[in-house]
Write a structure and sequence with these properties.
49% strand; 2 domains; 12-stranded antiparallel β-sheet; 14% helix
Length: 384
């Protein structure tokens, strides 16, 4: 679905200029005069002072830092470590601006000062979106039909209790009917290694695409529901290091289908129109991008494997594996080159309901290309 959030756009216009934010935060404002006054080879970090964290708890900020109180740091490493710590704080998306300064207390000890401006954490939303996959699909394939619009509302509360936790609730009406809620807590223990996310989603369709014609989705409208999908999940995340995350997911799905779909497409589902399934998934994410929201340097590797249908339910059986890799390479002061590779492989003998698809290929937005596997490679040349 193509989404448009009025409140988010207004907040971005009023409270931030994206290009300014990135230009302010891509390098550290390090005081060269202070660095030149450092006469010793090593120093002890006596204290870390944090200014500006009105909501965010101190331990959440310290968790992101390589700089630690009462630890020794080499003079030649100070600039690189400070720059890296600043990028890590920016990439939490908890702060609009971050500055890190160093003060010399005496010949052996340093004071680290971290100045923060926190982000706007509550984002109310008015949902006005296309139900179709993208704008070209809606405009070309469905003759820009305004009956295919979803509307609704909700909110997204970042940093709810000051520990980078997130609460979300949304509802939709129109082309579909949906309720969605989630809560994410990033740290469950004092070691701050593991987090937990709970999701609940209920969605009903009385318009549904049941087949394709020349790679164009074919829809059917009914006065009754065609599909009801209830999904709930729990996901445990383990932060191995600053850059490596592991995710373990268990999910329950209940899908109720109208018998009409089997007449429209005999391969839409098989035998049972009330499908229950428990799914298990694992995901690994290694992210070395400089700025996650607007990367210009670094790389990201993501791997997912999922099994749908385990335990007592026998009417769902599917394996899938996805691999994604992207690399961002600065060419000179003005240009950056990037490429990404994504691939999917899943079980072959599947009903239409469980086909995989990709509609993010530039120039092919109006086509639905789906099946059980794909390989996509993209290239981009960007001017700063």
């Amino acid at each position: 679905m193509t989404k448009f959030n009025f409140f988010s756009v207004i907040i971005l216009i009023l409270f931030s200029n994206i290009s300014d934010v990135f230009s302010k935060n891509d390098t550290t404002t390090f005081d060269v005069e202070i660095y030149n006054k450092l006469s010793n080879e090593t120093y002890s970090i006596k204290k870390i002072e944090i200014i500006g964290n009105k909501r965010t708890k101190r331990n959440i900020i310290l968790r992101e830092l390589s700089l630690k109180e009462n630890e020794t740091i080499n003079k030649n490493e100070i600039i690189n470590i400070v720059e890296e710590d600043k990028r890590k704080l920016i990439n939490t998306n908890l702060f609009n601006e971050v500055d890190i300064n160093i003060k010399i207390l005496d010949e052996n000890n340093l004071l680290i000062e971290i100045f923060l401006i926190e982000s706007f954490y509550l984002l109310p939303s008015i949902i006005f979106e296309l139900s179709d996959r993208n704008f070209n699909d809606w405009w070309v394939n469905f003759d820009h039909d305004f009956s295919r619009i979803n509307y609704g509302g909700g909110f997204l509360q970042y940093n709810l209790t000051g520990i980078a936790d997130v609460l979300e609730f949304t509802f939709r009406r129109g082309f579909i009917r949906e309720l969605y809620s989630s809560y994410y807590i990033p740290y469950l223990s004092k070691k701050q290694k593991g987090g937990l996310e709970a999701n609940f989603n209920l969605i009903e369709f009385d318009h549904l695409f049941y087949n394709t014609n020349n790679y164009i989705p074919v829809f059917y409208k009914s006065d009754n529901f065609l599909k009801k999908h209830l999904k709930s999940s729990l996901e445990y995340s383990h932060r191995e290091s600053f850059y490596n995350y592991h995710y373990f997911n268990v999910e329950y799905n209940n899908i109720k289908l109208n018998d009409t779909l089997s007449f429209l497409n005999e391969n839409y589902f098989r035998n049972d129109n009330n499908i229950n399934g428990i799914s298990l998934g694992y995901e690994f994410n290694r992210d070395f991008r400089d700025i996650k929201n607007y990367p210009l340097n670094g790389f990201r590797l993501n791997f997912k494997i999922r099994k749908d249908g385990i335990g007592i339910f026998k009417n769902l059986d599917k394996w899938s594996t996805k691999i994604y890799y992207s690399n961002y390479i600065p060419l000179n002061k003005n240009f950056n080159y990037s490429f990404n590779i994504s691939t999917l492989y899943s079980s072959k003998d599947l009903p239409f309901l469980f086909y995989e698809s990709s509609d993010k290929i530039r120039g092919y937005e109006k086509y639905l290309i789906h099946g059980y596997s794909y390989f996509i490679q993209k290239n981009s040349l960007k001017k700063k």
